[in-house]
Design goal:
By secondary structure, this protein is mainly alpha-helical. It has two domains: 105 residues, no CATH class; 54 residues, no CATH class. 55% of the residues lie in helices and 3% in strands. It has seven helices and two strands. A two-stranded antiparallel ribbon has the order 1-2. The chain is elongated.
């Protein structure tokens, strides 16, 4: 996924900075993990990179708390990508790396960055996704007995998806029932 012309222009402007940018330096826009790395590599200091990212994300210079949040997120992203650079033996798949780089800088609640897959793991995922329903058998080591299918040793991909849906639905129902006990309305 190549950088947008706006992002390349902002990168060039960031390269020329010698101090923290003035408010309004960067337009508010959607920032991906790849964009953050691009801007961080162009900035003369981490502080400048954080200030530019904050302006892109929120459209304002931001408070110290907001800048600290962006700084921590940037450090977390860089730490995750050092895994790729440090373990050349594993050779991560281009698809999983592209998915990670295309993900948003700040994730919504209860979501995580896409998992980095090795070439072998990606080949397995691609094989399961491209196989016709029922053609590929998946081994189930320990499945709860929510259906008679889950007791079988080998089941098709379609059957595994059905079991997963049932388990998720029963878990959601249990959570809903547990949370409804927390909310009570007093009688008037």
């Amino acid at each position: 996924m190549p950088a947008t012309p706006d992002m390349l222009t902002l990168r060039e402007k960031t390269k020329r900075l010698t101090a923290l940018p003035a408010p309004g330096f960067a337009p508010q826009m959607t920032i991906t993990v790849a964009d953050s790395i691009l801007l961080e590599s162009a900035a003369p200091t981490i502080g400048v990179a954080v200030a530019v990212l904050q302006q892109c994300l929120a459209g304002t210079a931001g408070t110290q708390e907001e800048l600290d949040c962006v700084r921590r997120r940037l450090a977390l992203i860089k730490k995750g990508l050092q895994i790729v650079a440090g373990f050349s033996k594993n050779r991560f798949s281009p698809e999983s790396l592209a998915a990670r780089l295309a993900s948003p800088f700040f994730l919504t609640t209860a979501t995580t960055l896409p998992k980095l897959l090795t070439l072998a793991q990606q080949a397995k995922v691609n094989a399961v996704c491209s196989a016709p329903a029922g053609a590929k058998c998946l081994s189930i080591r320990s499945a709860k007995s929510c259906t008679s299918l889950s007791r079988q040793k080998n089941i098709s991909a379609e059957q595994a998806a059905f079991i997963a849906d049932l388990q998720i639905n029963s878990l959601s129902r249990a959570r809903l029932e547990a949370s409804s006990d927390l909310f009570f309305f007093p009688a008037f």
